[in-house]
Design goal:
Layout lengths: L4 H22 L7 E3 L6 E3 H17 L4 E4 L4 E2 L5 E9 L1 H5 L6 E8 L2 E9 L4 E6 L4 E3 L2 E2 L12 E4 L5 H14 L5 E3 L4 H9 L5 E4 L4 H13 L3 E4 L7 E4 L1 H14 L5
Parallel strand pairs: 3-5, 11-12, 11-13
Antiparallel strand pairs: 1-2, 3-4, 5-6, 6-7, 7-8, 8-9, 9-10, 13-15, 14-15
Length: about 260
């Protein structure tokens, strides 16, 4: 079965089209069934599970031999070389509280490389898309990073763990980072943080403790928009992404601040 990245991108688009309306309509509903996973603050809803199943069913109908890795537990080995990495609602806390910052993220991985990725923001009705080597777009318009050159005036996004001990360490790192950058933003979902980097809304983004589905599509989109991205999706889940002119500076700052242990 061919692995044309544009074909895979279209399959991801079609799957997201099936769920985005219901996800948008559900965000403000008080009837959502909310459970917790790794901690009391790590929430999951019935909409997360429904969205993942619907996306998986849609992709399976188009490509029955493909594999899956989904946040809500979908796991299947691939017989085609293609594995879909899915975060049905990235930023569930924001979704539950009816806040912006959540998204639907779908990426196609061929062997060890992400070759296509789609992130849809239901609140702003923005769809970020990228293929490996094909550039990145938002609602079909080309996007690129900010071109920032000075870390001291740069806007930096970050996120925090659901684990209380790691959160404490991340807060300590933040006290060392904040005085040396323009300002900090915490939006709520890694996928949209990376897309914000991609379109120049922030100049850099860092976080530790991310899962593969948190970063798969967003990291490709940011990279294809010109960002420098260093990520470890199978170890400590650490990621630094930035406009190239400040990447070395923020990586060095985070190293001095002890972010490698936070």
């Amino acid at each position: 079965m061919p692995h044309d990245s544009l074909v895979l991108l279209g399959i991801a688009d079609a799957a997201i089209d099936l769920v985005v309306g219901r996800v948008s309509a559900s965000s403000a509903q008080s009837s959502l069934k909310v459970d917790t996973k790794s901690s009391r603050t790590d929430m999951v809803t019935d909409m997360d599970r429904w969205t993942e199943k619907t996306i998986v069913d849609s992709i399976t109908a188009a490509r029955p031999g493909d594999g899956f890795l989904g946040e809500e537990g979908t796991s299947r080995e691939s017989t085609t070389g293609v594995t879909w990495v899915i975060d049905p609602i990235d930023g569930t806390t924001n979704f539950v509280y009816d806040l912006p910052g959540y998204s639907i993220s779908v990426a196609a991985r061929v062997d060890d490389a992400i070759v296509a990725g789609v992130v849809h923001d239901p609140v702003r009705d923005e769809r970020f898309r990228a293929t490996l080597g094909g550039g990145a777009t938002c609602n079909h318009a080309s996007i690129q990073v900010s071109g920032a050159q000075d870390l001291a005036t740069s806007l930096v996004a970050t996120g925090f763990s659901y684990d209380s001990d790691r959160r404490f360490a991340q807060a300590e790192v933040l006290t060392r980072v904040l005085p040396l950058v323009g300002d900090i933003r915490r939006f709520g979902g890694a996928a949209l943080d990376l897309c914000s980097l991609a379109c120049g809304r922030v100049d850099a983004y860092y976080e530790r403790g991310l899962a593969p589905w948190d970063m798969a599509a967003g990291a490709l989109i940011a990279t294809e928009a010109g960002a420098t991205v260093a990520a470890n999706s199978v170890g400590n889940g650490a990621l630094i992404g930035a406009s190239p002119g400040i990447f070395d500076s923020i990586a060095a700052l985070l190293d001095r601040a002890g972010a490698h242990t936070a």
